Amino acid sequence: MGMLCLLLSVSGAAWAQEAGKISGTLSDSLTGKPIEYATVALLQSGNTQALQSALTDANGRFSFTAVAPGNYQLAISFLGYQKKFMSQVVVSAAKPEATVGNIRLVPSTTQLKEVTVEGLRPTITQEADRMVVSIEGTALAAGRTAYDVLATSPGVFIDQEGNIQLNGRAGVTIMLDGKLTYLSARDLRSLLEGMSAENIRNIEIITNPSSKYDAEGSSGILNINLKKNTVQGLNGSVYAGGNYNFKQYGYSTGASINYRTGPWNSFLNLDMARRVGGRDATFTRVFKGDESSTYFDQVADGNYKVEGPPAVRLGTDYSFNDRHSVGVMGYYATNQLHADFLTETYIGPSPDQPTQFIDADNFNQNRFSNRTANLHYMGKYDTLGTTLTADLDFVKIKNRGDADFYNYYYDLTNPGAVTQDFLYTNTPNEFDIYAAKVDFTKPLAQGRKLEVGAKASRVISDADSRFYFNNAEVPVLDTKRTNHFVYDENIYAAYVNFNTKLTERFSLQSGLRAEQTQSKGELLTTGDVTKRSYLNFFPSLFLQQKVSEDYQINYNYSRRLQRPNYGQLNPFFAYRDPFTYWLGNPDLKPQYTNAFSISQVFKKAYNLTLSYQHTQDVIVELVAIDPETATTVYYIGNADDSKNLSLTANVPYSVMKNWESNNTLIVAYNEYNVAIDNGQTVNDQVFYMLQSNHTILLPKKVKLELNGVYQGPSVYALYRADARWWLNVGVKKSFMDDKLDLSINANDIFGTQHLIIGATLGEGNVSDWDQYFRQRNISFTLRYKFDRGAKVEERRRNNLEELNRTGG
């Protein structure tokens, strides 16, 4: 805090010594509307190095203060407009304030008959440290959820359990508006499936985060930015839609209302849906015993539906003046899950000689609730960009679940011999998350910038999981499969980032983050306690080389970690069927990743990245089998290490005047070293993926969007997945001066998105499965938009990390 106070004092002294001022406004040359967030740089005449830079506000205004007498020029740039330079801007002792008036920028796009090329701006933009995928206004977003659109982002892959991979690597951290969500795959899916993609502005793909970001997330960060309150007065939209996956019907509806008056800037988002889905699967297993083998063949049918009252997201900002503001935000969502998993299993000494048939019907339900509160402050201490932001967060998540398992055993060698075994589980769990953070940014002389910050968080997880035999009138507690697990974790972090321009062609950003972790996991059922305390340092280094105006090279290094989520640490036997369980591991260690990359950017649009990652103590799902009982237990453990070498190319391409495409190609080598059966197994594969997104403007304001993906064979831990491909199609039509949009989508139209996986178990044991998660569906959405007034400044909340690990 002493450093923060010193920097604030320096900035205050500089502010008090203002010598002169330059100001003006920017507007669109065609519409006359003010342009917000355009970059204006102040340069000394005859010099190419910027002295100051500023962003225009909601009314297109910009200003520079503390300007010494002299001759200056302005360099103005904004995406979608032609660059503009203004020279002979003079500040003198006689005239210390220079006003350049209104500067009109010319759009870089042109108008055509019945179509506007501007509507075909690339939906993927490559920035210096991230790739930004625009979602707002696309036909593929209509009628879909936030969870759905993640799969259409470049390099993103979602596995059979909902875990997200980036560029073929696991360990992705998900953020909402800069808030890192520490949810398990199950709870994260519940949250994102309850969020309409209509409310998403863009998705930022950050493969090598700087030290400013939490160290969590070994393969990078996916940040989902939601739409903000951007219009003066009352504005918003309402929508409704339906979907059908050829077995189940669902719907979605909601509204977004924004209002600003005076110093208040408020919003209200409502989203309600009936989300449906399921899977059709076959499982094949071979258990090699000392004298004989057991063959296991299972057919499964799973269905689920999730519905509840509207999820509510409500917030307001209050501006004391143009430099200081505070805001509060609250979020509440609750829903009820009803699901079934029905299996038919044949077991015998050979595939064509089953001796036993098992009919297992599982029915479960869960009540999920999420309460989130945020208090936010932003202060701007000068026009150079000195800012201080602070956040306080509280999150409470609850799950109240129970399940019934009805198992019927048929002895095929003795017709008519049937036995039954009924089971019941009650699995309530909840999480309390507290976090506080502060970030300070101070621009320095000669284009340098200093960023410092600190964060503290605490998470309390409480899971009381009970297992019962339910064969009598009164259920009997199974003490061997019942546990009560409490986990308490504290993380204290601080970072420093420094940016500087080394030469005209080279700039450097270096940073260091320190995180102290203290945790205690207690299994109340047995009294076992696991305590940990460790301090880690996470350096980052980014070197940018500007070869020419159209060619840039970025050299990056960062160290990251992935902590186990709280459900993975819980040693509870999660039941799926009489022969399949899932088990947590309280001794699970965090994994650490060193990541290197070289990225080349051509013409600020084409990107080619070579990257290498080495991860130690990889958190993976492993398999333990018991040949005598034909039982399979999936458990979480630490593999020795993994290596990933990848080449990623992002190529936007204009097929014709009204047809734009963005294409991503990934070629990677993945290797996992895993200890199994007292030996070492190396599972490796050359992986390749091609993703192609197309936007086509048709006559009469009809937009056609295509998303095609092909993935080659891949590996993860002990698993090998076959190649697969799919195609999504979206059509959007606008009416009533673009206020009313109708969108129709068809996803996985050929039903080819099957997930076929085999596990390497050694000694002739086999565990293969073929699952289809009903991605094939059709949907429609009707949305009406209303807005008026001028845009206002957005205040982005950069908040919480701790949601992503809450569950199993």
Task: Give a description of the structure.
The structure is a single chain. The chain is mainly β. Among the domains are: 89 residues, Sandwich (Immunoglobulin-like); 463 residues, Maltoporin, Chain A (Beta Barrel), CATH 2.40.170. Helix content is 4%, strand content 64%. The protein is built from 3 helices and 48 strands. The strands form 6 sheets. It has a 31-stranded mixed sheet that branches. A 6-stranded mixed sheet has the order 10-11-16-17-14-15, with no helix packed on it. A 4-stranded antiparallel sheet has the order 3-2-5-6, with no helix packed on it. A hairpin with a 4-residue loop joins strand 37 and strand 38. The N terminus is likely disordered. It holds the Pfam family OMP_b-brl_3. It is found in: Cell outer membrane. This is Outer membrane protein beta-barrel domain-containing protein.
Write the layout of secondary structure elements.
Blueprint (H helix, E strand, L loop, with lengths): L1 H15 L4 E8 L10 E6 L5 E6 L5 E5 L4 E8 L6 E8 L5 E9 L5 E2 L2 E2 L7 E3 L4 E4 L11 H5 L5 E3 L5 E3 L5 E5 L2 E3 L3 H9 L6 E7 L13 E7 L6 E12 L4 E13 L2 E25 L4 E15 L3 E9 L4 E25 L7 E25 L6 E25 L6 E9 L2 E15 L5 E21 L6 E2 L5 E19 L4 E18 L4 E21 L2 E12 L10 E5 L2 E4 L7 E12 L3 E21 L4 E26 L2 E18 L2 E20 L3 E10 L2 E3 L2 E3 L2 E12 L4 E8 L7 E6 L5 E7 L4 E10 L22
Parallel strand pairs: 1-7, 14-17, 35-38
Antiparallel strand pairs: 1-4, 2-3, 2-5, 5-6, 8-9, 10-11, 11-16, 12-13, 14-15, 16-17, 18-19, 18-48, 19-20, 20-21, 20-22, 20-47, 21-23, 22-23, 23-24, 24-25, 25-26, 25-27, 26-28, 27-28, 28-29, 28-30, 30-31, 31-32, 32-33, 33-36, 34-35, 36-37, 37-38, 38-39, 39-40, 40-41, 41-44, 42-43, 43-46, 44-45, ...
Pfam families: CarboxypepD_reg, OMP_b-brl_3
Subcellular location: Cell outer membrane
Keywords: Cell outer membrane, Membrane, Signal
